[in-house]
């Protein structure tokens, strides 16, 4: 079994790039939502990315086996992946891209807690618990500050519904991470794990778009650019890189590091969608960064017996 290690410079740099890409994807989905429903766009990008992963596996002469014991877990992660983006797509219809990305990326909190219970190598120490608390407090502060500034009196029912869907999407993502790490998929290739998810998302989200009457598309240059970006960069390249990281590094350290993604997402929301920047955002961002630093700098097992258990 692969020995997973704490973050090094290579993993940190790659995670920084992934966080930037994942932060902007919600903004792009929101910006094109009037021409193509987010659920429809995510379903299409998943289908294109699944084809690319299949070609990639063929180029590497890597076989997709459903008799190696990974199929049950593969069905689970495919369903959870589809559920995550169904909730994201619906959430974006009711709330802003900035709010959606903030609540989606509470996933590391739930993933770290789940892995803390399931895997000895992923146990969190006291400093890391403090880091998670600070980061979560920063996200909550940022969210409520932005909602109150937007409405003048507090959250609207419609916005709260969208935020709740995004939070549930974060839980679905966390559950996917736990299933990957605690099943036969932990030793499967990153491309095979990703293919399970992409096929599940393509099938289930296209059915959902059909059932909800969200299949209409008005093709524009922006829509084409978004589909290429979402399919090739986000769903293919970035997710392959994410699962490679999961196989080689401690997932709780990677997950909490991705708290940077809401900062990128909100920054792109301000820049590209003209969303306002409030003092609460600055305070929340500082808390999130402090939490990320505490968890990342104190990552890894604390005792030799923990390291052996992780291996």
Topology:
Blueprint: H1 9-31, H2 38-59, H3 71-92, H4 97-104, H5 107-118, H6 126-151, H7 157-181, H8 190-211, H9 221-248, H10 251-257, H11 260-273, H12 279-297, H13 304-310
Helix pairs in contact: 1-4, 1-9, 1-11, 2-3, 2-8, 2-9, 3-7, 3-8, 4-7, 4-11, 5-7, 5-10, 6-12, 8-9, 10-12
Describe the protein:
There is one protein chain. The chain has 311 residues and is mostly helical. The chain has one domain. The chain is built from 13 helices and no strands.
Low-confidence stretches: 298-311
**Portion of residues within helices:** over 70%
Number of strands: 0
Shape descriptor: globular
End-to-end span in angstroms? 7 Å
Oligomer: single chain
Q: Tell me about the biggest sheet?
A: none
Number of helices: 13
Secondary structural class = mainly alpha
What is the chain-wise order of helices and strands?
Answer: HHHHHHHHHHHHH
Rg calculated over all Cα atoms: 19 Å
Total individual domains:
1
Global mean pLDDT: 80
Task: Note the main attributes of this structure.
311 residues, 13 helices, globular, disordered C terminus
């Amino acid at each position: 079994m692969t020995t997973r290690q704490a973050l090094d410079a290579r993993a940190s740099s790659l995670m920084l790039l992934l966080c930037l890409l994942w932060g902007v994807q919600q903004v792009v989905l929101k910006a094109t939502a009037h021409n193509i429903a987010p659920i429809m766009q995510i379903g299409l990008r998943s289908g294109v990315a699944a084809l690319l992963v299949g070609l990639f596996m063929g180029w590497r002469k890597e076989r997709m086996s459903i008799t190696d014991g990974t199929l049950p877990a593969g069905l689970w992660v495919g369903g959870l992946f589809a559920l995550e983006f169904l909730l994201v797509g619906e959430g974006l219809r009711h709330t802003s891209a900035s709010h959606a990305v903030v609540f989606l990326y509470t996933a590391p909190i739930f993933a770290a807690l789940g892995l803390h219970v399931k895997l000895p190598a992923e146990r969190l120490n006291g400093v890391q618990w403090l880091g998670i608390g600070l980061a979560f407090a920063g996200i909550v502060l940022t969210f409520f500050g932005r909602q109150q500034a937007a409405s003048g009196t507090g959250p609207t029912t419609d916005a709260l519904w969208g935020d709740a869907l995004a939070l549930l999407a974060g839980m679905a993502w966390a559950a996917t991470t736990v299933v990957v790490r605690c099943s036969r998929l932990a030793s499967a290739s990153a491309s095979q794990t990703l293919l399970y998810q992409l096929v599940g998302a393509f099938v289930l989200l296209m059915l959902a778009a059909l059932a909800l009457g969200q299949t209409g598309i008005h093709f524009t240059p922006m829509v084409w650019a978004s589909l290429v970006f979402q399919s090739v960069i986000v769903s293919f390249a970035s997710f392959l890189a994410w699962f490679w990281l999961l196989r080689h590094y401690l997932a709780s350290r990677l997950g909490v590091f991705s708290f940077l993604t809401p900062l990128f997402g909100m920054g792109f929301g301000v820049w590209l969608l003209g969303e306002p920047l409030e003092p609460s955002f600055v305070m929340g961002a500082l808390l999130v960064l402090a939490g990320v630093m505490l968890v990342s700098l104190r990552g890894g097992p604390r005792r030799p017996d923990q390291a052996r258990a992780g291996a």
